[in-house]
Recover the amino acids of this structure.
């Protein structure tokens, strides 16, 4: 095994330090700038299933018609063996037509996901992007948190987590005491440190910490000239300028920027697993190689001098 494995907080689950992220392979050109065909997506998942990566992250809402889950389901059905230690996590999403995010919708979302994935249960189910509703609605009677807790109490899912953006809101959800795992994205990277305290305090409480989007959705892998968005949106110039300076610094040490961006997350003592979005089979091998890339201390020190100040962060 070329990847380290870590306990996921106090869940009892054991996960590889690298997790396969599946939003690019759902084909979402508005976020990533390109389409991904069925064949390419399925070949990518097959490459993951044949690799040392034993953790896959998806969501009911990736792709217009659940493409990510459908494609994972098709790849799993075709794959013989090697699934025993796979941790497959998905997320509950609002109704795509009405926006309903009630407890009833949570149950429907989970049923849909199981159907698409072709499994009876998943070990980890997240509340996805709860910033789409007010916190009071999230925790209300008949709301999504109550439904997730019921799914766990009834044994239909092993563990529940919360996955989303704004760190203060994520902290409020962790404060309910119900969530065993937190996933934050684009907020603990070479360019943005908004989630550092959230992660640290989650770790201190025995909550599993999953850091998604170490490349900020692509800028830190493809460069700011190819992916001008950071965290799926237009950002001020400070972010792209820092990314360009980081590319130049890495080039002087002959280190791919993506390798440094990935290892920045992997080496954080409070991160249990890092979720990387990939949509081609070659990426899987390349990403595993980046885990082992030698990165000199001097480069780490130089990259730290280039971090944009906190007013540029997503928070
Ligand atoms: N709220 C949430 O729950 C939430 C939010 C964000 C993310 N996530 C999860 O976290 C995962 C990671 O986030 P993300 O996919 O948005 O962003 P990311 O991992 O920061 O970046 C993904 C982008 O980087 C590119 N890339 C990956 N490896 C590369 C390499 N070696 N060289 C060049 N380009 C490379 C991918 O391109 P290719 O497609 O060409 O491989 C893709 O465009 C998601 O897929 C999703 O599973 C969850």
């Amino acid at each position: 095994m070329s990847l380290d494995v870590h306990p996921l907080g106090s869940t009892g689950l054991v996960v590889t330090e690298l997790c396969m992220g599946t939003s690019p392979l759902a084909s979402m050109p508005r976020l990533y700038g390109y389409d991904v065909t069925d064949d390419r997506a399925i070949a990518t998942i097959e490459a993951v299933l044949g690799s040392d990566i034993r953790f896959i992250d998806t969501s009911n809402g990736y792709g217009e018609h659940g493409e990510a889950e459908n494609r994972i389901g098709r790849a799993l059905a075709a794959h013989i063996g090697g699934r025993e230690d796979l941790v497959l996590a998905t997320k509950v999403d609002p109704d795509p037509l009405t926006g309903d995010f009630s407890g009833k919708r949570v149950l429907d979302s989970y049923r849909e996901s199981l159907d698409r994935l072709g499994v009876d249960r998943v070990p980890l189910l997240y509340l996805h992007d709860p910033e789409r509703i007010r916190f009071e609605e999230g925790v209300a009677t008949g709301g999504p948190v109550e439904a997730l807790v019921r799914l766990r109490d009834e044994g239909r899912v092993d563990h529940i987590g919360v996955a989303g953006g704004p760190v203060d809101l994520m902290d409020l959800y962790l404060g309910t005491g119900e969530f065993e795992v937190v996933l934050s994205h684009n907020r603990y990277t070479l360019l943005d440190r908004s989630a550092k305290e959230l992660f640290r305090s989650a770790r201190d409480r025995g909550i599993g910490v999953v850091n998604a989007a170490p490349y900020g959705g692509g800028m830190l892998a493809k460069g700011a000239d190819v992916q001008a968005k950071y965290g799926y949106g237009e950002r001020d110039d400070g972010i792209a300028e820092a990314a360009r300076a980081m590319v130049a610094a890495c080039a002087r040490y002959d280190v791919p920027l993506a390798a440094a961006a990935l290892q920045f997350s992997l080496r954080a003592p409070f991160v249990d697993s890092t979720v990387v979005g990939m949509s081609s089979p070659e990426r899987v091998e390349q990403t595993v190689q980046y885990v082992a890339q030698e990165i000199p201390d001097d480069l780490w020190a130089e990259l730290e001098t280039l971090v944009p100040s906190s007013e540029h962060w997503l928070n």
